[in-house]
Amino acid sequence: MSVVTGGSEAAAAAGGGGGGGGRVFFQSPRGGGGSGREDAVSAAVQVQQRRHQQGKVTVKYDRKELRKRLVLEEWIVEQLGQLYGCQEEEMPDVEIDIDDLLDAANEEERALKLQETLVDCYKPTEEFIKELLTRIRGMRKLSPPQKKSI
């Protein structure tokens, strides 16, 4: 089961991974001639890098929009758990792509896409589909982050 909110670059950026500032850090092996101070400095630099990467994400995307997406994704996972009667780990592979739904021409096309996705669900899905369409109304599609040219 997965909820897709954008391109793979957006997922990597939102997860804080991938393509940082091009810095390389060498870490001395534990127990060998390295000092505790060097380890602390290395850890502090890594934390600072993560914060910087998170800052890039919120600049490329509106923080409110990201928060709305996260809340929506959590709701979708909860609802799918109820529909399929299982925990997230046991759920069949169901992919609901929010951006794909937002690309649809109208509500009917969105509902049809959701019905096709949930075809193997044995419980009624009409209420879930109706509520999801209501929740995505007014949302914007997230475009992939712009890569900086060197």
TrEMBL record:
GO CC annotation terms, alphabetical: cytoplasm
Superkingdom in the source lineage: Eukaryota
Start-end of Low complexity biased regions: 1-13
GO MF entries: protein serine/threonine phosphatase inhibitor activity
UniProt keyword annotations, A-Z: Acetylation, Phosphoprotein, Protein phosphatase inhibitor
InterPro entries xref list: CPI-17, CPI-17_sf
Segments of this protein annotated with the region Disordered: 1-54
Coiled coil location: none
Keyword Phosphoprotein part of the UniProt annotation: yes
Regions of compositional bias (Gly residues) in chain numbering: 14-23
Family (UniProt): Belongs to the PP1 inhibitor family.
PANTHER family: PROTEIN PHOSPHATASE 1 INHIBITOR POTENTIATED BY PROTEIN KINASE C, PROTEIN PHOSPHATASE 1 REGULATORY SUBUNIT 14C
Protein name (Swiss-Prot/TrEMBL): PP14C phosphatase
Lineage: Eukaryota, Metazoa, Chordata, Craniata, Vertebrata
